[in-house]
Design brief:
about 220 residues; nine-stranded mixed β-sheet; globular; Spore Coat Polysaccharide Biosynthesis Protein SpsA, Chain A; 8 helices; alpha/beta; about 25% strand; Glycosyltransferase 2-like domain-containing protein; Nucleotide-diphossugar_trans
């Protein structure tokens, strides 16, 4: 049976942001097995965001999040679905280009092993297609307890429990705002993430992440 993928974009109606590039890029990448759902956030609190992200898992068997100021490549969704076909892996993820607000862009380091996922919340960056059956409500509880990004935990749980596959293709263009740079580089946030992820397991921590173009070597 073929997989279907739901792309989810959460928006804040109170924030003035041009959604055009995001919507156009997702539209260009949709396949017959994909759909795009845009969900306005009802509240701006961190807890409301955690709940909205977790609730979005009910929208499909595979879910990928695209932020409303970011874009994806035309082939990104197709490649994610192909990478998850005929296996039970929990996550398929592409490489990512980080675009700063001053126009400078750099390719994010690829995630090559599961130990990196245990160390850093940015290891499994966008675009990540998550097989939702492998995400439990522990992620929501841990995100609230440790006040760290629930999307990080959802990707980590699916990857560490079922395995992940890297797609060596720049599938996501992530706009990095100054406040986000401070957040992801904050040692306290990284420490909270490392603590939160421990209950999710480290079964695969010593192994390399599978690469879809060359078996288990990256």
């Amino acid at each position: 049976m073929s997989l279907s993928l739901t792309v989810v974009t959460h928006t804040d109606p109170r924030r003035a942001r041009d959604l055009g590039p995001c919507l156009a890029s997702v539209q260009a990448a949709l396949t017959p097995a994909c759909r795009h759902v845009v969900i306005p956030l009802a509240a701006e609190t961190e807890d409301a965001f955690f709940a909205a992200r977790y609730a979005a898992l009910q929208l499909g068997e595979v879910v990928a999040f695209v932020d409303d100021d970011d874009t994806i490549s035309p082939d990104a969704l197709r490649l994610c679905l192909e990478a998850l076909a005929d296996n039970t892996l929990g996550v398929a993820f592409t490489d990512c280009m980080i675009v700063c607000t001053d126009g400078v862009a750099r390719r994010a380091p690829p995630c090559r092993d599961y130990q990196a996922i245990c160390r850093s919340p940015s290891a499994l960056h966008h675009l990540a297609a998550i097989r939702t059956a492998y995400v439990s409500d522990r992620c929501l509880r841990l995100a609230r307890q440790y006040q760290c990004g629930i999307e990080w935990l959802m990707k980590a749980e699916a990857a560490l429990s079922q395995g992940a596959v890297r797609i060596p293709h720049i599938g996501y263009y992530y706009v990095n705002h100054p406040q986000q740079q401070q957040r992801t580089g904050n040692p306290a946030i990284r420490q909270r993430y490392s603590e939160a992820i421990k209950p999710l397991g480290e079964v695969l921590a010593g192994l390399p992440v599978r690469c879809c173009c060359c078996g288990w070597l990256t």
